[in-house]
Design goal:
This protein is an alpha/beta fold. The protein has five helices and 15 strands.
Length: about 210
């Protein structure tokens, strides 16, 4: 089964970005960083989600991110599906922090249960077919709105969303051009998908 071992964010200042992610989220090898000045404007077409067990954990992570320099795109609040909010890291990456629970069951922690990479796509049928042809198995599918893949025991999960819908969830304009500033490290790579997202072998991203 295809697994995603890491995602590499291309940032202008890797030292500052490392400091932010360590302080805000305590992330380790799942999120890697490399220096890049590739031109990019507006929405980069993806978000990363941190899934946690309770609202208090959402608040703890969002508060830590804002204290470390992130901007609030959507304040944490209850919704039909649970509780969550959205922040934008200083390097420009959009992060959703969410829990399916609406009630706390214990003291707040910063324990992260899952990391989910959501790719915004132009044509859901085309992108779904592209990934299935490369060996990814569909775990959940809701027509042309959402597709989630089975990525085994890898630390990063993968899902596809329509680009405009993903931007709306993130609280940003869907407009954007240039580099995604993202590289996905997996045993499925290397290739570039129909929306320009670059996949590389896990060993290649480990050497960045």
């Amino acid at each position: 089964m295809t697994s995603i071992e890491s995602v590499t964010l291309e940032v202008a200042d890797p030292t500052a970005a490392t400091r932010f992610y360590t302080t805000a989220f305590g992330l380790g090898s799942q999120i890697r960083l490399r220096a890049s000045e590739a031109p990019t404007t507006g929405f980069r077409g993806f978000t990363l989600s941190l899934v946690v067990s309770q609202p208090a954990d959402v608040n703890a992570l969002i508060d830590a991110a804002v204290d470390a320099g992130a901007a609030t795109l959507k304040p944490a609040t209850k919704s039909l599906w649970g509780y969550g909010g959205v922040v934008q890291a200083p390097d420009g990456t959009v992060w959703q922090v969410a829990s399916s629970s609406k009630k706390d069951t214990g003291p707040a922690t910063r324990q992260i249960d899952e990391i989910v990479l959501l790719l915004g796509v132009a044509d859901m049928a085309e992108s779904k077919r592209f990934y299935v042809d490369r060996g990814l198995a569909v775990a959940k599918s809701f027509g042309s709105k959402y597709v989630e893949f089975a990525t085994g025991s890898g630390p990063v999960k993968l899902a596809l969303y329509k680009r405009r819908a993903l931007a709306k969830v993130a609280g940003v304009s869907p407009d954007g051009t240039g580099s995604h500033r993202l590289r996905i490290g997996s045993d499925a790579g290397p290739f570039t998908d129909p929306d320009g997202f670059t996949w590389a072998t896990a060993s290649e991203t480990a050497s960045l």
